[in-house]
Specification:
The chain has 267 residues and is α/β, with parallel strands linked by helices. The protein contains seven helices and nine strands, in the order ββααβββαββαβαβαα. It has a single domain, classed as Aminopeptidase, CATH 3.40.630. 33% of the residues lie in helices and 16% in strands. Strands 1-3-2-6-9-7-8 form a seven-stranded mixed β-sheet, sandwiched between helices.
Length: 267
């Protein structure tokens, strides 16, 4: 069985930075599509549109990238395996309704199907992420984990950095990231609504890992005229190109500052 994720290894000298893209996948198994409400069989809302393309330059900076292939509606990799596994969009591994509380399913998944999705799509991603962290800890002594997301609504700020209200990474680390985004003119806030999901909080507990969630608002990189419709927004737009150019500069600055700080026994 093919893996439910893609692993992009560094194309430059590897550095102790891992990027996780747990919500950028769009694939949905056919049996699940058939069980959805007809209005959602072609389009599902509130996904991290095109982040794989937006951040495809990261390996050239030495960053290891783990990217899911499957939609967050198949399994949400940024949720813990607490019961109920099937339920609230913001808490459960498998959502019963959309983010806007609209019913998703004509036919609800059975317990067997729920557990099968966890085994087939959820566990392999987390097992791979844990392996990557362990390998880089062994190689470098510590690792910086960036969990990359995008959003619309709830807040108007362009960039939100979440570190579990200062529990998953050091002040120097989040300051480096914040400074890099601000240098390109972005409005940045910390822990405002998006304070870090399961991936940031769980792996950020590891003593050799500093974890940070980065949320980018849709209009930063997508055409606002295409948002709010029942179709996937296009990535071949001016907003996307401009944002990607800025992000390349931001991450280059971030990496240089992190590596300089680490050489001086950062944290």
């Amino acid at each position: 069985m093919p893996t439910p994720f893609l692993l992009h290894l560094p194309t430059a000298q590897a550095i102790p930075v891992i990027a996780s893209l747990p919500h950028s996948g769009l694939l949905i198994p056919k049996d699940m599509v058939d069980s959805l409400e007809i209005s959602y069989q072609q389009y599902l809302p509130n996904q991290d549109w095109h982040l794989d393309k937006l951040y495809d330059f990261l390996p050239s900076l030495g960053i290891t990238v783990l990217q899911t292939l499957y939609s967050r509606y198949v399994v949400d990799l940024n949720r813990s395996l607490q019961e109920p596994l099937f339920g609230n969009f913001w808490q459960s591994v498998i959502a019963e309704k959309t983010a806007w509380n609209a019913s998703l399913y004509q036919t609800l998944p059975s317990r067997e199907e729920i557990e099968q999705r966890v085994e087939q799509y959820y566990r392999p991603y987390h097992q791979q992420l844990q392996r990557l962290l362990n390998e880089q800890i062994e190689q470098f002594g510590k690792v910086y984990l960036l969990d990359l997301h995008s959003f619309l609504g709830l807040i108007e700020d362009e960039i939100c950095l979440g570190n579990g209200n200062n529990s998953t990474c050091s002040e120097p680390f989040i300051s480096i990231v914040e400074t890099a985004f601000c240098s390109q003119g972005y409005q940045v806030v910390r822990n405002k609504v998006f304070s870090g999901g399961y991936i940031t909080r769980y792996y950020g507990q590891m003593p050799q890992v500093e974890a940070l969630q980065i949320e980018v608002r849709y209009p930063v990189y997508l055409d606002t005229n295409q948002l709010g419709h029942s179709s996937v927004p296009d990535w071949q737009v001016l907003e996307f190109d401009r944002a990607k150019q800025k992000l390349q500069l931001i991450f280059k600055q971030m990496v240089e500052a992190l590596m300089a700080a680490q050489s001086h026994h950062f944290r």
